[in-house]
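re the bet — no i am not wrong, look at it urself. input seq straight from the record:
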Amino acid sequence: MSRIDTLIDLRRPSSDGRAFVYMLPLRAEELLKLGFSRDPVVRMRSLHPRYFDFFDLERAWIIEADRVREARAIEREFKRRVREHRAPAPLEVRPQAGGETEWYRGARDILQAAASGLIAQGYNVHLGARPWLRAQLLARSSGLFEWSSQMYGQMQVARAEPELVVRDALGSALRAELDALTAFDIDIAGAVPDDVGAWYRGAPDAY
């Protein structure tokens, strides 16, 4: 049984040199992730499959830079300012994502002020990253139909051990992706096949 990559990259747009610095605070905890990425959506998903629940995206921010070296320079400067706040990564973060570093505790106010200061320098800073992330998910949703169909097709094939373990993993990944759209108030109707929608809504005979 061939497998589909559950860490999806739905029509990832070409960055054309653009890069981003991001700050992702956890919900109900003074712990945050500071980092650099060419694609923050893919990065968040790699850190935690339910990033939309795990991180407080209302308090998160994202800085756009025209060049990778600009983003890297901003990231280095921000890390320098909060190096005394370094903290261990939460256990829930996927170790294979390389997310064990760049975690800080009690540094949000410092980083918030630093990010806000870049607005006057002409940088596009998304303070409160939710609207930007929603727009990104909408722009990529056209790739969801085929991917979800393939995922669901493989789930239907799995009928016995050890395939059931694979089915559960595929189902968790598919549900997380659809939950993300729901969390951002994006209607999945038409974005996925009817059988996938029925499965997601909990139809008893959806498998």
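see?? The radius of gyration is 19 Å. told u. also The helical segments are 40-47, 51-54, 68-81, 108-117, 130-140, 144-157, 163-183, 194-201. so pay up
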